[in-house]
DNA sequence: TCAGGCCCTGAACGCACCCTGAAGGCACCG
DNA sequence: CGGTGCCTTCAGGGTGCGTTCAGGGCCTGA
């Protein structure tokens, strides 16, 4: 079992390597983001332990880049406990799991083992509905062959709708899934974001993928409109 | 896919259930630790979402007990961010993964899916009567192969009739189910809406799915007319 | 055959729902 | 520390849809 550790803090990196070797993993270490990215690309690791905060390229970016390039090695993200960290964002960029610092070796190794057991994640299916296409791994969206730039919220909303093609999703369901489950703000925000999506995905292409079902919710046409 | 949610905070439990159901999981909820333990023992769930802090028995204990008894259903632990929580302990007692509150649905569902490696979710059954078809999920209606546009009320009425094919439903029953049970308006509204349905579903197709049973109510022909 | 009741029909009203544009606030980046 | 982009809030306007209403037709029982 070969593992790559990408971690700039020398002490921690050395400790990790020592610990993992003791657990029976062949372990390589990269101290810089760019090195890590390169090594991950060039070698068939069974798993990658990836720090979030790195000089050069940060963990998110490395993760997203690898996935974009078709590298599906399981990734375990290391994150600082106090920092601003959105677990959803980590998972969305293609990480398979994460551990917050400070962590125990027991937890780390347990998770790493689980990750390896699960194997190299199958490439997450690209979602499509007609000529509308969304790739959850690389966080990119296309209308036919045209790449469309979406913000994080817009993507979350689109992804949610695309995971239920043809079904009507109520405003409440949308709020609970795309925003927090206890979101207490103005529900009108859903309408605003539906509009944003329409402006980017429908209007320029003279399509109407997103239908309003008055009094019920919104539906993404399963043929993309 | 059957999921058990053990969570004492009613709001969160309800939100979780609703969300998971929307994601295609058949979801049961237990509000007490003891109930949860019992349900987990007695039913073949595909996964269990387990809160750590519970009245009666806490999550650790439930987890450990189940494992001790040979129940190996995948367990996803819910933990408070600020609380005393040792991830190693959770994993040691037999949990397979954990999520810290507050969490986003995206993260939760991603982890749950990973946990049970699920396939495509089932959708609610499509109702049909002869060549009349109604899909509750997409809120769409067809007469043979033709899509028919209905408003919310029209659909509610049609759905009610289609759930009792061949039975005569009295105007009062209809009022209580399709409108509010304490609806105090003009009962003539039922007639108005029956007419709307006939105009959209029967007349253009020269059929008569909806029969008037004078003095009693209305009946949807089980062969669609 | 007549009276009464039940149902049908078309139109009109008003509100709730959704759309829309703009602006404030916050985080991130230079 | 200023600039930019994104998330969110807010208020105004349009209209689809639910509901009401009145008039007329048709069935039923005496």
Give an account of the 3D structure.
2 copies of one chain form a homodimer. Chain A has helices at residues 10-22, 33-42, 59-68, 87-92, 105-118, 152-162, 171-178, 188-202, and strands at 2-6, 26-30, 47-51, 75-80, 97-101, 127-129, 132-135, 140-143, 146-148, 168-170, 210-213, 217-220. With 225 residues, chain A is α/β, with parallel strands linked by helices. In chain A, the strands form 3 sheets. Chain A has a 5-stranded parallel β-sheet. A 4-stranded antiparallel β-sheet of chain A has the order 6-7-8-9, with helices on one face. In chain A, helix 1 (10-22) links the parallel strand 1 and strand 2. Chain A binds a DNA duplex (30 and 30 nucleotides) through helix 8.
Task: Tell me the layout of helices and strands.
Two copies of one chain form a homodimer.
Chain A lengths: L1 E5 L3 H13 L3 E5 L2 H10 L4 E5 L7 H10 L6 E6 L6 H6 L4 E5 L3 H14 L8 E3 L2 E4 L4 E4 L2 E3 L3 H11 L5 E3 H8 L9 H15 L7 E4 L3 E4 L5
Parallel strand pairs in A: 1-2, 1-3, 3-4, 4-5
Antiparallel strand pairs in A: 6-7, 7-8, 8-9, 10-12, 11-12
Helix pairs in contact in A: 2-3, 6-8
Chain A binds a DNA duplex (30 and 30 nucleotides) through helix 8.
């Amino acid at each position: 079992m070969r593992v790559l550790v990408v971690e700039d803090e020398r002490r921690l990196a050395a400790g990790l390597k020592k610990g993992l070797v003791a657990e029976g993993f062949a372990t390589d270490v990269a101290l810089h983001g760019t090195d890590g990215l390169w090594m991950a690309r060039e070698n068939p690791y069974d798993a990658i332990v990836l720090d979030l905060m790195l000089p050069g390229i940060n963990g998110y970016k490395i993760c997203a880049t690898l996935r974009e390039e078709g590298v599906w090695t399981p990734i375990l993200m290391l994150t600082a406990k106090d920092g601003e960290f959105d677990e959803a964002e980590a998972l969305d960029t293609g990480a398979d799991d994460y551990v917050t610092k400070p962590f125990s070796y027991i937890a780390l190794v347990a998770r790493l083992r689980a990750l390896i057991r699960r194997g190299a994640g199958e490439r997450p299916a690209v979602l499509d509905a007609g000529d509308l296409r969304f790739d959850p791994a690389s966080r990119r969206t296309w209308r036919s062959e045209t790449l469309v730039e979406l913000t994080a919220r817009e993507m979350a909303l689109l992804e949610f709708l695309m995971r239920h093609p043809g079904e009507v999703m109520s405003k409440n369901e949308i709020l609970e899934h795309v925003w927090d489950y206890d979101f207490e703000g103005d529900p009108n925000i859903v309408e605003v974001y539906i509009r944003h999506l329409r402006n980017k995905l429908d209007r320029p292409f003279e399509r109407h993928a997103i239908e309003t079902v008055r009094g019920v919710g919104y539906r993404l046409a399963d043929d993309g409109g």
